[in-house]
Amino acid sequence: NSIWVSTDHDEIEKVAKQFGAQVHRRSPEVSQDSSTSLEAIREFLNHHHEVDIVGNIQATSPCLHPSDLVKVADLIQKEGFDSVFSVVRRHQFRWSEVKKGENKMTEPQNLNPAKRYRRQDWPGELYENGSFYFAKRHLIEKGYLQGGKMAYYEMRAEHSVDIDIDIDWPIAEQRVLSFGYFGKEPLKEVKLLVCSVDGCLTNGRIYVTEDQKEMVSYDYRDIVGIDLLKKRGIQVRFLSERDCSKTLSAMQLGCVAKVSVTNKLQVLEDWQEDMGLSWKEVAYLGNEESDVECLKKAGMSAVPADACALAQKAAGYICKSSGGCGAVREFAEHIFLLLEKVNSSRKQ
Question: Which key words are in the record (predicted)?
Answer without folding.
Answer: Nucleotidyltransferase, Transferase
